[in-house]
TrEMBL record:
Domain of life: Bacteria
Lineage: Bacteria, Pseudomonadati, Pseudomonadota, Betaproteobacteria, Burkholderiales
The family this protein is said to belong to: Belongs to the short-chain dehydrogenases/reductases (SDR) family.
Protein name, entry field: SDR family oxidoreductase
InterPro entries: NAD(P)-bd_dom_sf, SDR, SDR_fam
Length: 264
């Protein structure tokens, strides 16, 4: 299927590895020009090189990168100094650390809200009007399945990402909806990423069980019987960015291998 987005420009955050990289790779393979962003310069440069060398990438596409922390005003300024207008924006920031809510002070909460709620809102604010003026725009926020089914040790993430979800529910249905701009959230379940390893370690420490036992037990609880891959996640993101998803907005898409037990 031709997704109809070849030649578009995409900003993909947190793209040096994991789900962000999976999204960038899927978009590049569709002929989209990308500006990838992450904090670690070395890992980001390696990710850019991998995208450029990807055999599935159409030759004319451009791959650019900026090492910056998009959760700061300075980091976002560095991104928009490189390129101002984007047709596609994929927001993504590392999740807050796991733990016990009794141990989190105000600073921990503000940091979580800044990274996982306010930063995506700032990126939306900076790009959405240009998209609407041009008559096409796709914004995909990578959030978490914890928005649908909270995880006890991820309280910071549960709270901050739920706040973003509520905001998107309103703005996606505003006047931009009739001007070719969609905003959706992707709520990943358990995907085989570094973030998952960190969560597994926290769960193992809390339970006193070996990490591999935790891993096997988790996979057994997923109807698909395994963790997802960044490539699978990226493909879903690319579809939401396509011309074929123009009638999908304000939605929370939950790729989790069937782990969420609810009907709605």
């Amino acid at each position: 299927m031709d997704l109809g987005i070849a030649g578009k420009w995409a900003l993909v955050c947190g793209a040096s590895k994991g789900l962000g990289f999976g999204c960038a790779q899927a978009l590049v393979r569709e002929g989209v020009n990308v500006l990838i962003v992450a904090r670690g310069a070395e890992a980001l440069e390696a990710a850019a090189a991998k995208l450029i060398a990807d055999n599935g990438r159409p030759a004319p596409t451009s791959v650019q990168f900026v090492a910056a922390d998009v959760t700061t005003a300075e980091g976002r300024a560095a991104v928009f100094a490189q390129r101002r207008d984007f047709d596609i924006v994929v927001t993504n920031a590392g999740g807050p650390p796991p733990g016990d809510f009794r141990d989190w002070d105000r600073e921990a909460w503000i940091k979580a809200v800044d990274a996982n709620m306010l930063t995506p809102i700032e990126l939306i604010k900076a790009t959405v009007d240009g998209m609407a003026a041009r008559g096409f725009g796709r914004i995909v926020n990578i959030t978490s399945s914890a928005v649908k089914a909270p995880i006890d040790i991820l309280g910071l993430s549960n709270g901050a990402r739920s706040g973003l979800t509520g905001f998107v529910a309103g703005v996606a249905r505003s006047s931009i909806a009739g001007r070719g701009v969609t905003i959706n959230n992707l709520l990943p379940g358990k995907f085989d990423t570094d973030r998952l390893v960190g969560t597994l370690k926290a769960a193992a420490q809390k339970s006193g069980k070996p990490l591999e036992d935790i891993r096997r037990a988790q996979q057994a609880q997923i109807p698909a019987g395994r963790y997802g891959t960044p490539e699978e996640f990226g493909a879903i993101c690319a579809f939401l960015c396509s011309v074929h998803a123009a009638y999908v907005t304000g939605q929370n898409i939950l790729p989790d291998g069937g782990a969420y037990p609810g009907t709605y």
